[in-house]
Amino acid sequence: MYSAPRSILAVAVFLMSSLSGTVAFPQTVKFIRRAAEPLPVANLPLGRAPCIRESGSAVSLSYPATPARGDVKSPCDASAMSMRSVNPCNPASLTQIGCKTSRDLVQEDLAAMGKPGQKILRARDRVLEILQTENACSAWFREKDSNPADTFRTLGFEVDRNGEGFVLESKGPSNMTIFRNPYVAKVFQGDGQYATVTINTNGAFFYAMAGVVELWKEGGPISHRGPRLTNVGPYAGDTINAQMLVLLHEFGHVLDLLPADENNVDGKSVQNTNEVVRFCRAEIESKARRGALSAWR
User: What is the pTM of this model?
Assistant: First the structure.
């Protein structure tokens, strides 16, 4: 606690009394109040009630499909005084009622990543168009989230520049040849709002081909062979269709709409990709065609 000296307090009391129109001497109070009755001073709000953000997990890695495998909510109060205030609401979210957000920080972060960020941003914009409209794809996501577009808008993105970049060739049962493409993207299962999706810069999101590495069960020497085409579901790698499918697949894990498929055990990642295609193929291909027409014009 801070205590002021007695003399200072006396001066302060006198000054405050003078300003309020009430003199400290009782003999003159009635005279002053009869001469000019002071108006009561209203208690004005001096600030804005803070916005409180709602608080929003195995990692799911997605591989291209191949033939072989309780918070308290508070609105932003309108201030009676014109005062500049700082809005603590996360600018990436547009779900805060009464909180005006003019910046999309996720968009800014992606724009700063250069060419990889531009590709992610393009696919993100198309996915938002799908989720913001009424269609079979957005209806499927609404089974887990009543407003999937707003949740998707909060997702952050990172790139893994050291991710695997080879197609692994091995032998399965009955001497069947199995090709395992590099992982494309990953996210924590059921992470919800503000989850971060990591995309492999050496995978099918960015490249249409990858070199092949042959693995031997006997532990023999690893042999490298020529490049092989990569794909995501029915779409070739490094295409807008494949990129939209990747983001929709990862969003399915964010909402826990798709089961975890880490390392594609028993082909679960491929199965999850096929499930997204079943509900979202028409919208993916429609948005890709519209984008191609816009670019051609």
Answer: 0.67
